[in-house]
Structure formats: structure tokens, C-alpha cells
């Protein structure tokens, strides 16, 4: 379906970046704004009974993660809240308060939206407006053969309860890291994406957008979340999804940390197409062999 949307897109004046990246870029009155929209749906992105503050955090922060991937600063949100029939007045008010509080804390206050009640699951759809703040947005389409691939943080286990911390609900978007990368020319990546569907799904999007490049991932270098580390922890790292970390393609060596966040080199971009996963014992998995890993709607 995403490819179908992309085929309907044609270049338009005032829209330097359209469908296919983490955010669209539009020109308004001589200035550039970045825009993205993401929903969270009860039963899909969060379980029934999830605390309203966690629902709000995920709804706002997953949009902020898109801004981080472009190196932009979140500025404002527009929220459409569709309350399920089972959501009573008190729960609805707690959710709305939590959404406003979370957006305020993230620097992107709610400036409007809509509220409705329907027979389906409670759904929060957030549109984020972000500011490039003088920096050229980083696109996912400019990786180069020979680039090294880096990720922030750790991967996998996003839905595991770690003593009360559940990453896909409680994560902090890497906005500060994204800004640091675009504000220092020596650190700026050629391409970047946020890992929402898992490395196995999101890296191919960068490679395809960059002209059909390939990549080699060194599985023994993946920073795996400790709670799922083990013999096949790498499968969780590339396939669980909802990491909301940054994957970047870089021409120069990167520091071990940026703004206190760990960076790990996990592989490289190559000229020939195809994605290969290399083990430490000489084995190699192809993209096709691991095609079942990563998040895909309707599967």
C-alpha cells in the first residue's frame, strides 16, 4: 500500500520531500516545515488496560522519533482522538490530560485536533510539525556504498517488561542525538531512519531509497537488549521492532557516544544490491531467508 501511495506522488512546487521518508518537507512563506502523522491503536500498538500516560507517551514520542531521524526539532502537534465505547469519561479525561502533558514536555504542544466516539478501539492519531532550525534534514535516500552503518542504543525486546520498564511504551525519542548529528558537519550522516518496524524491515527501505544499494550486517556486533540476549539474540535485535533507535549511514567514523547515547557500528553499505547478515562463525543469511522478521501490518 505504501508503494501504491508513492506511485501516485509527483513532484510539486513547495514540497521538497514527499512520501517515502520519515517526514515530509514543505515550504511555507519561504520557511521549511516538516510534517509527519502516526496513530496508536488499542489492540495493535498498546494493549487494553494500558495506563493512559503510557498511551500518550507512545502516541507523541513515536512522532518525535521521526523528527529525530530527520535531525529536526518537534514544535507542535495536532491530535485526533477516537474514543472506544468502553472508554468512560474519567479515562477519556486522563488520556487527554496525558496527551497534552506529554506534548508540552516534548516541546510540541497540542495546537488543535478533534475528539470523537466510535464502536472501534480507542485510537490516537498525532500529526507532528517540526522545524529544521537551520539544518538540512537528513533523508533516508542518500546512503553511499562504503558507508558504515551505526545504531543508537540497544535493539530487541521492546515489548518485554524489565522491572516495570517496557521499551515500546516508555522509550525516549533520540531528538537530541538527531540535532547533534546535523549541527556538527563532522558527524552528519548521509542517510538516517528511525527503527520502528525493526532493522530487518527498515534497513532495506534505506537501501532501496538510495538507489538499490546493498549492505552487510555483522550480527555479532549488534547491541542486543540484555533481557533478550542469548544464542539467537540477534534475531530479536533485527526483528522485534519498535526500538525507536536511529540507524544511520556514515562516511566517517562516529564517536562511541553522542549526548550520552551509545553508538555502535554494525556493518557497512555495499554497491551490489541485497542485504546479507554475517555471523561470527562464517555463516551468512540473506534478506530472503530472514524475511519473516520485523513488523508488518496484517501479518
Q: Roughly what percent helix?
A: 10-25%
As for the number of domains, it is 2
Q: What percent strand?
A: 25-35%
**What is the rounded Rg?**
19 Å
Described by the principal axes of the CA atoms, the overall outline is globular
Q: What class would the helix/strand composition place it in?
A: alpha+beta
CATH architecture type of the largest domain: Alpha-Beta Complex
Largest sheet: 8 strands, mixed
Order of helices and strands: HEEHEHEEEEEHHEHEHEEEEE
Number of strands: 15
State the end-to-end CA separation.
Answer: 14 Å
Features:
299 residues, 60s Ribosomal Protein L30, Chain: A, 7 helices, 5-stranded mixed β-sheet, thiamine biosynthesis, single chain, Phosphoribosyl-aminoimidazole Synthetase, Chain A, domain 2, 8-stranded mixed β-sheet, alpha+beta
Please describe what this structure looks like.
The protein has 299 residues and is of the alpha+beta class. The chain folds into 2 domains: 130 residues, 60s Ribosomal Protein L30, Chain: A, CATH 3.30.1330.10; 143 residues, PurM-like C-terminal domain (Phosphoribosyl-aminoimidazole Synthetase, Chain A, domain 2, Alpha-Beta Complex). It has 7 helices and 15 strands. α2 runs parallel beside α3 and α2 runs parallel beside α5. The protein is globular, with a radius of gyration of 19 Å.
Kindly summarize this structure in a few lines.
The protein is an alpha+beta fold and 299 residues long. It contains seven helices and 15 strands.
SSE blueprint and pairings:
Elements: H1 2-8, E1 24-28, E2 31-41, H2 52-70, E3 73-84, H3 89-105, E4 110-118, E5 123-131, E6 148-152, E7 161-162, E8 165-166, H4 167-170, H5 175-183, E9 191-194, H6 199-209, E10 214-218, H7 233-239, E11 246-250, E12 257-258, E13 261-270, E14 274-278, E15 284-286
Parallel strand pairs: 3-4, 10-14
Antiparallel strand pairs: 1-2, 2-5, 3-5, 6-11, 6-13, 7-8, 9-11, 10-13, 12-13, 14-15
Binding site for Mg(2+) 1: 38, 114
Binding site for Mg(2+) 2: 38, 66
Binding site for ATP: 113-114, 140, 196
Amino acid at each position: 500500500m505504501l508503494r501504491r501511495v508513492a506511485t501516485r506522488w509527483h513532484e510539486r512546487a513547495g514540497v521538497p520531500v514527499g512520501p517515502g521518508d520519515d517526514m515530509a518537507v514543505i515550504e511555507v512563506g519561504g520557511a521549511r516545515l516538516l510534517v509527519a502523522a502516526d496513530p496508536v491503536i488499542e489492540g495493535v500498538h498498546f494493549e487494553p488496560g494500558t495506563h493512559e500516560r503510557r498511551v500518550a507517551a507512545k502516541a507523541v514520542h513515536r512522532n518525535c522519533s521521526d523528527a529525530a531521524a530527520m535531525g529536526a526539532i518537534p514544535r507542535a502537534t495536532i491530535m485526533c482522538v477516537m474514543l472506544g465505547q468502553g472508554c468512560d469519561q474519567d479515562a477519556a479525561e486522563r488520556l487527554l490530560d496525558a496527551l497534552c502533558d506529554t506534548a508540552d514536555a516534548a516541546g510540541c504542544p497540542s495546537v488543535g485536533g478533534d475528539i470523537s466516539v466510535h464502536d472501534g478501539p480507542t485510537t490516537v492519531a498525532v500529526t507532528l510539525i517540526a522545524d529544521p532550525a537551520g539544518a538540512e534534514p537528513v533523508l533516508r535516500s542518500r546512503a553511499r556504498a562504503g558507508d558504515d552503518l551505526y545504531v543508537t542504543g540497544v535493539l530487541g525486546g521492546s515489548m518485554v517488561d524489565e522491572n516495570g520498564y517496557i521499551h515500546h511504551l516508555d522509550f525516549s525519542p533520540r531528538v537530541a542525538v538527531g540535532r547533534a548529528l546535523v549541527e556538527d558537519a563532522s558527524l552528519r550522516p548521509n542517510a538516517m531512519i528511525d527503527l520502528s518496524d525493526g532493522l530487518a524491515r527498515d534497513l532495506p527501505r534505506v537501501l532501496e531509497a538510495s538507489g538499490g544499494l546493498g549492505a552487510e550486517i555483522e550480527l555479532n556486533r549488534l547491541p542486543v537488549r540484555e533481557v533478550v540476549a542469548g544464542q539467537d539474540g540477534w534475531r530479536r535485535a533485527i526483528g522485534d521492532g519498535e526500538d525507536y533507535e536511529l540507524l544511520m549511514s556514515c562516511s566517517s567514523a562516529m564517536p562511541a557516544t553522542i549526548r550520552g547515547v551509545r553508538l555502535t557500528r554494525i556493518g557497512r553499505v555495499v554497491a551490489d544490491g541485497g542485504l546479507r547478515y554475517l555471523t561470527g562463525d562464517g555463516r551468512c543469511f540473506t534478506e530472503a531467508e530472514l524475511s519473516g522478521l520485523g513488523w508488518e501490518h496484517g501479518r
